[in-house]
Design a protein that fits this description.
single chain; mainly alpha; 56% helix; globular; metal-binding; nuclease; disulfide bond; S1/P1nuclease; nucleic acid binding
């Protein structure tokens, strides 16, 4: 099975991505912060670069990055059974960015782009529908209504639950970033595949819960805590990766 290359996905929206990056910023060690300053200069604040991969989607020279935002696993499939896209996917892209940052021969320009991509994709990987079904473009074809207005289940999880809260990204991060030091240590043990498996398990659950597709207050009540949890985990794990490769 090949991954689709035409999915128009913007995981977590701008505020969600910035919240992931803000939480990561809170958990960086001193060496990683210093390295970020040296590499990114005036942009050495992760929320500033967290939406770069969405910002450049209209630029054709970056079209090769389009498949990097997701990994499709259809119902009943396992990761090991999926035919990998030769143009890349979110798992390979994250691992490739880590390799660039670990390589002492990488240029500052290469490292700067790797940080931008990594910051975005770790966020993407924690949005459950970025590990959704190929057949419905990760939930983009699963039509629902959100407070009576047409939408799809992917968009609800990308941005509409977050937007409905009317919070800034710093408020989202402050409310979500409540892990204990022991939890942080445990979360940062996760591999890229572990993160993917978590999202896929949640995605499978949420597909089954779409019901009649009329989503609103009750859906928010039942699921917004999961949105916060995924943003928190994404931020803490991003910090763990950056602390390891830059610290």
């Amino acid at each position: 099975m090949m991954l689709t290359t035409d999915m128009k996905v913007f995981a977590w929206g701008q505020n969600g991505h910035r919240a992931v990056a803000e939480i990561a910023n809170n958990h960086l060690n001193k060496k990683a912060k210093k390295a970020l300053q040296e590499i990114l200069g005036d942009s050495a604040y992760l929320p500033m670069v967290s939406t770069w991969m969405d910002d450049i989607k209209s630029d054709k020279k970056y079209a090769f990055m389009s498949p990097w935002h997701y990994f499709n696993i259809d119902e009943g499939e396992k990761f090991e059974d999926v035919e990998r896209n030769p143009k890349g996917d979110i798992i390979k892209a994250i691992d490739d960015m880590v390799a660039i940052l670990e390589n002492e021969n990488s240029t500052k320009t290469q490292k700067a782009r790797a940080i931008k991509v990594l910051t975005h994709l770790v966020g993407d990987l924690h949005q459950p529908f970025h590990v959704g079904h190929k057949s419905d473009l990760g939930g983009n074809r699963v039509k629902v209504t959100w407070f009576g207005k047409p939408s799809n289940i992917h968009r609800v999880w990308d941005s509409e639950m977050i937007t409905s809260k009317e919070l800034s990204f710093t408020e989202i991060a402050r409310f979500a970033d409540h892990a204990t030091p022991e939890q942080v240590e445990e979360l940062q043990k996760a591999t890229t595949i572990d993160m993917m498996n978590e999202s896929h398990a949640l995605c499978t659950k949420f597909y089954a819960e779409v019901g009649d597709g009329k989503l609103g207050y009750r859906y928010m009540y039942d699921h917004y805590k999961t949105v916060e949890e995924r943003i928190m985990k994404g931020g803490i794990r991003l910090a763990g990766i950056l602390n390891k490769v830059l610290g």
